[in-house]
């Protein structure tokens, strides 16, 4: 996910160039344009702007960061956790980014356990109510 080869695998070979438009970037990572705008608004990504047109210009480094954001969002990480991980990556502190990710996984695991426990209680309640 963090290597340049991974970005090259995502980008269409005919699209390999210095920078990408918002449409090309969104297509390359598989999210709508509006998602990229939302992530920019949340401060997760700051693409360069074309001086004349004002259009966003995404570099391969930006695409790599977008892939990380997308992956973390699909794993149901909060924007706060995504922001922490990206900040550590920007500081080249990969060990800390991994620690934050692992801590978040433990938290999510506990959350899933609580949800499953709640589902079990709901099934028991429906059985009790159904038998009355």
In terms of topology, how is this protein built?
Blueprint: H1 4-10, H2 22-29, H3 33-41, E1 48-49, E2 56-57, H4 60-74, H5 79-90, H6 94-131
Antiparallel strand pairs: 1-2
Structure commentary:
With 132 residues, the chain is mainly alpha-helical. The chain folds into two domains: 1-74, Orthogonal Bundle (Multidrug-efflux Transporter Regulator, Chain: A, Domain 2); 77-132, no CATH class. The protein is built from six helices and two strands, in the order αααββααα. The protein has a two-stranded antiparallel sheet. A hairpin with a 6-residue loop joins strand 1 and strand 2 (56-57).
Quick recap:
The protein is mainly alpha-helical.
Features:
single chain; 132 residues; mainly alpha; Multidrug-efflux Transporter Regulator, Chain: A, Domain 2; 2 domains; 6 helices; elongated
Determine the N-to-C terminus distance.
54 Å
Biggest sheet descriptor: 2 strands, antiparallel
Please tell me what the overall shape is. Answer: elongated
Strand content range? under 5%
In spatial order, strands of the major sheet run 1-2
List low-pLDDT spans. Answer: 1-5
**Helicity level, as a percent range?**
55-70%
What is the overall pLDDT average? 83
Number of helices: 6
Secondary-structure element string: HHHEEHHH
Number of beta strands? 2
What is the count of structural domains?
Answer: 2
CATH class of the largest domain: Mainly Alpha
Question: How large, in whole angstroms, is the Cα Rg?
Answer: 20 Å
Under CATH, the topology of the largest domain can be stated as Multidrug-efflux Transporter Regulator, Chain: A, Domain 2
The helix-and-strand class reads mainly alpha
Would you identify the CATH architecture of the largest domain? Orthogonal Bundle
């Amino acid at each position: 996910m963090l290597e340049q080869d991974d970005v090259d695998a995502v980008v269409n070979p005919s699209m390999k160039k210095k920078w990408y438009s918002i449409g090309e970037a969104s297509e390359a990572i598989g999210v709508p344009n509006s998602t990229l705008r939302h992530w920019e608004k949340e401060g997760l990504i700051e693409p360069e702007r074309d001086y004349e047109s004002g259009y966003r210009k995404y570099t391969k480094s930006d695409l790599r960061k977008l892939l990380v954001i997308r992956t973390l969002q699909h794993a149901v990480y909060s924007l706060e956790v995504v922001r922490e991980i990206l900040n550590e990556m920007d500081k080249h502190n990969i060990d800390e980014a991994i620690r934050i990710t692992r801590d978040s996984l433990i938290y999510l695991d506990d959350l899933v356990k609580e949800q499953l426990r709640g589902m079990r209680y709901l099934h028991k309640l429906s059985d009790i109510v159904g038998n009355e």
